[in-house]
Amino acid sequence: MKLSQDRILFLARESLARLRDEKLVEISNFAQALRAGREVLEQFAEQGDAVDAAARRKIASLKRGVVEGSAEWDILYRRYRDEELRKKGPAR
Questions:
Q1: Residue ranges per domain, the chain?
Q2: How many helices (H) and strands (E) does the chain have?
Q3: What is residue 61's DSSP assignment?
Q4: Tens of pLDDT, residues 3-34
Q5: Are 53 and 81 in contact (CB under 8 A)?
Q6: C-alpha distance across the termini of the chain, in Å
Q7: Longest dimension (CA), the chain
Q8: 35-71, pLDDT tens digit by residue?
Q9: Which residues does 38 contact at the CB level (< 8 Å), separation at least 6?
Q10: If you average pLDDT over every residue of the chain, what do you get?
């Protein structure tokens, strides 16, 4: 999932603000929490990019040329993406 640094920062800020506003957490140092939230979102995005790339490599390696956007490609992509996510285990 391709997210710009600005989008990641926005998502982290909005998430923390909502958690704070709904009184689900107490944030004593918002800047520090924002840095930690941004790092978590960056790691999540990187993992998604790695899974996407692995699924695309598997499809590209097939002898029969599967055209991206076709129904077969979509099915294979989902299958290979799910396999890669299972290999990586639960998100941390």
A1: 5-88
A2: 3, 0
A3: T
A4: 889 999 999 999 999 999 999 999 999 999 99
A5: no
A6: 17
A7: 57
A8: 999 999 998 888 888 899 999 999 999 988 888 989 9
A9: 8, 9, 12
A10: 90
